[in-house]
Design brief:
Elements (H helix, E strand, L loop, with lengths): L3 E6 L2 H4 L12 H4 L2 H4 L2 H6 L1 H17 L4 H12 L3 E6 L5 H4 L6 E2 L2 E8 L5 E3 L18 E5 L9 H10 L2 E5 L11 H7 L3 E6 L11 E4 L2 H13 L7
Parallel strand pairs: 1-2, 1-7, 2-3, 7-8, 8-9
Antiparallel strand pairs: 4-5, 4-6
The structure holds adenosine-5-diphosphoribose.
The site of adenosine-5-diphosphoribose has 23 residues, from helix 1.
Length: 236
Amino acid sequence: MVQNIVILTGAGVSAESGLGTFRDEGGLWSQYDLKEVATPKGFALDPAKVHAFYNARRLNCLMAAPNPAHFALTTLQRQFPGTVTLVTQNIDDLHERAGSTGVIHMHGTITGALCAACGHRWDAPRAMAATDACPSCGKTATRPDIVWFGEIPYHMPEIDAALMQADLFVAIGTSGSVYPAAGFVAEARACGVRTLELNLEPSETARTFDEGRYGPASKIVPDWVAEMLAGVSRPT
Ligand code: APR
């Protein structure tokens, strides 16, 4: 019997909310050079360009709304009798806006600002600028609270512990091309955890999963959640 579920989401879960993915045709990394906008070196070379990139992401996110996949995962969190740990690579807050709690943002959040000088964190304004001073130390080393390529993702010990306790690992809407998240399926399998991929099409790591179901997240995620909750008694 499944008691502990760990779910990893990627850009595909938010695609039908109008937020672009990274590697699909026309995706963000075909429009922007990731080395320029998503690396510490790129930020050091041109902070204004990087802030402009993330300001646009923040605006898109503000204008987007959660879709049935986000809501279904919230229903699962609320009604599943065991634990549901939701880990996301996404920097948007659509899981939270759908009502999910305790979401682990391993790549940071677009709603956060971070001072590279003192480590202070605060809510990002709608538009950040290289000249913004840290409200704590006053230095102008303000950056989006995003994990860039070459940086260590957040909350890894917590994620590893959840994977080790899991009975089921589910990856939703991720291409499986960025580590360490792309390695979670192998890590889970090594711990004897059953693994399921829910994606538009088989990902790069599809063959590592025990099972795959393919189609738009707004359809396949609610269907899977309904299956997981079938037979679960709910308070009347
Ligand atoms: N429903 C389900 N899956 C979808 C949908 C949809 N409607 N639309 C696209 N997908 C799938 C694609 O088939 C693809 O496999 O979502 C996946 C998106 O892959 P990527 O664009 O690579 O996004 P992701 O896996 O989240 O990227 C990981 O890379 O640059 C970064 O830091 C960024 O967190 C991101 C990381």
